[in-house]
Amino acid sequence: MSQSKNFSRLSASLLYTALAAALLPAATNAAASGAAAAAATGGAVTVAPASGAVVAAQLRPAVMSRQAAQSVMLGAVRAGSRIVAVGERGIILFSDDNGQRWQQADAPVSVTLTAVRFADARNGVAVGHAGVVLTTADGGAHWQRVLDGQHLAALALQAAKAAAGFGPAAGAGPRKATATRAGADTAAGAGASAATSASALRDAERLVADGADKPLLDVCLLGTNRILAVGAYGLAFASEDGGRTWTPWMNRIDNPKGLHLNTVRASGDTILIAGERGYAQLSTDAGRSFKPLNVPYNGSFFTAELSGEKEILLAGLRGNAWRSADAGKSWQQIASPAPVTITASTTRSDGTQILANQAGMLLAVRDQALVPISAKPLPPLNAVLDLNNGGLLTLSIQGIVPVAGDKQ
Known about the structure:
- This protein has about 400 residues and is an alpha+beta fold.
- Among the domains are: about 5-155 and about 210-250, no CATH class; about 345-408, no CATH class.
- The protein is about 20% helix and about 30% strand.
- The protein is built from six helices and 27 strands.
- The chain has helices spanning about 5, 10-25, 30-40, 50-60, 150-165, 185-210; strands at about 75-80, 80-85, 90-95, 105, 115-120, 125-130, 135, 145, 215-220, 225-230, 235-240, 245-250, 260-265, 270-275, 280-285, 290, 300-305, 310-315, 320-325, 330-335, 340-345, 355, 360-365, 370, 380-385, 390-395, 400-405.
- Strands 1-2-3-4 form a four-stranded antiparallel sheet, with no helix packed on it. Strands 5-6-7-8 form a four-stranded antiparallel sheet. Strands 9-10-11-12 form a four-stranded antiparallel sheet.
- A hairpin with a 5-residue loop joins strand 9 (about 215-220) and strand 10.
- Helix 3 (about 30-40) runs parallel beside helix 5.
- The chain is globular, with a radius of gyration of 21 Å.
- Residues about 1-50 and about 170-190 have low confidence and may be disordered.
């Protein structure tokens, strides 16, 4: 059993989502959703119907609520001077007065949303359960669904079939590993490649068979129109055109065990991905290739900060926090005041890094220690955002909680 299933920053929202899904009626248009997925991939893939409850949540708009700001909230970001936050049941909120008052946005889904990012004041993306990706072009007031679990699975299967030799350009049968003039080493490499392709094909077929039940857990922007979303069981999908089309990136990221990818960060051409069992990968060429990072901890990471090309912060299970100043070549552990899972982080405008944990603690990184900075009792925290006025905005299982005060 993976550690993240018990300790993920989504643990509370998963419970709420499971209860909500159990009460949702079966969707009447599951077949239409499957047809749309097939159309998106050129009709080359047959998509297994997802469960009625999951499809219903994908297709049902979020319910408008006067108490939306007290819902389980999981992610927040600045969009110019506006703040946009996302959470359970498809709730998206925005504030134009630095978090004092909130307005609920129109959202086309009722699944839990886990993360949100903006490229500028108007263009943003949010991801969540059931493989859902939403985009906005008006600062977060209105959103459209551009990807879901059925489409995601179909794309993965199409790519895996092409890699295994079943694609349109590869003929009728799978490619065979044969020896060449390079001798046995080349043959062995071809065999390994064939085995990798076969494994990827099995994983993709399982993804289709399971239906739209896999959550996307984080997202980053690699430029105005470049998006990278990661999630459970090693899901990784990228778009080069603002979400209109998507490409699986699982073949670029070495993750044979299908470990959950909990967090992703980008700075210039550098991309950092981290997840369960100490998993961490770094790309310095805008995602064309990734290399593993040898972090001296094998527990799950749930958040990360990437400052420039070389400074990395990873934090997660049982209060573990690790920092590298040389792009992962060496690591220093940061002492934590409590063995409590760290769920979120942010970097303030002055460069100070703030972490949040499941005990409701806000912690500043100072030298080689995490120092509590707020005496105010807080509920278990899922996210934290710098308000640029000395205060912080925290997101919790009890909703949005501003924390005022001077910078510590």
